[in-house]
Queue: 2 jobs
Job 1
Amino acid sequence: MFILVLSIPLLLHIDPASAQESVNTNAFNPQMLLRNALQWIDSLGAVGALAFIGLYIIATVAFLPGSILTLGAGVIFGVVWGSVYVFIGATLGATAAFLVGRYLARSWVANKIAGNKKFAAIDQAVGTEGLKIVLLTRLSPVFPFNLLNYAFGITGVSLKDYFIGSVGMIPGTIMYVYIGSLAGNLAMIGTEAQPSNPTIQWAIRIVGLIATIAVTVYVTRIAQKALEDEVIKS
């Protein structure tokens, strides 16, 4: 089950630079909505940080594109504080989504796979090595941030391991906030006119590729071992 979830972005060939954009933008324009919200936050002064964190939490749970907010944080707060606020908002939002997935969907999924030993073994494997898997997937921008929050909620990974694993978001957060700071103007965020740093972009791709390969191999290995253990027991 979890291997299938992890393989979705690879099958769809999602671009790492837009991996967090997991919302269908045909019905409405979430980017414009978030840009307007960022303009409002920029006018709040000292309390803008709290408003930004609150907005990031809501956006994460609601599947809105967090990359716009991450880039915008670089414009409004600068690289250092922007990274801090994004990390806090993303971690709290991811935890909220995880809890929603666990307590609203977990029992239903558990019932569906109750008689399937293969799915149960994979789920158990993720629960056993959850911290390492969360860390690796957080390091990889290939895996959609919002989707993973709910996906982890229906696995056996503990809330503690999931929360601690959020530190894997720090490198990518700093990189994207830095890229956003280059824009210097909220109106340029997420547009073709936004300036970029090729070195930073390639760094993101390389780190993402390594983490993606690592997590795929690692999950496959522990899942296979769990399945072998189940066969021996039966």
Job 2
Amino acid sequence: MPPLRTFILKVVNRCNINCDYCYVFNGPDQSWRGLPVRMSAEVAHAAAQRISEHATAHDLDHVDAVLHGGEPLLAGPRHLGAILQILHDRVPSVRFELQTNGMLLNDDWLDLFEQFGVRVGVSLDGRPVANDRHRVSHRGRSTSYAAVRGIELLRSRPRAPAKSSGDAE
């Protein structure tokens, strides 16, 4: 069996939107309510140590760390920046990716992504009519406009690596 190269880290255990199909937050298992809201620095250090040991043991030239949630941007730029720094310092040749719903993206986030070379994927369920059928705010409102605004912001900053995930038009 080949060694692992991609590690998905759930950095936030909450979400700022209310997708009706979400198996975590709208599923029968509500045990997430008793878990910490975001990954602690101690957990980030432990994860970085284990990933580093694995990469060294298998002589990997790089590993990918995917920051996920809920919505990882709910961690806030300072906290997520600390997690990125921990991983960057302890894991040789780590490459970062982050999956977001795009609603909280702003210039502070893009500055952080540029600093660490974070590739960003934005989840969207298609055109607004399709997206807003299932991906709404906790008040039942559209999330399309904010998600597309986030995608446009990513596109406006060519140094912020972006990857496509869905149809924003």
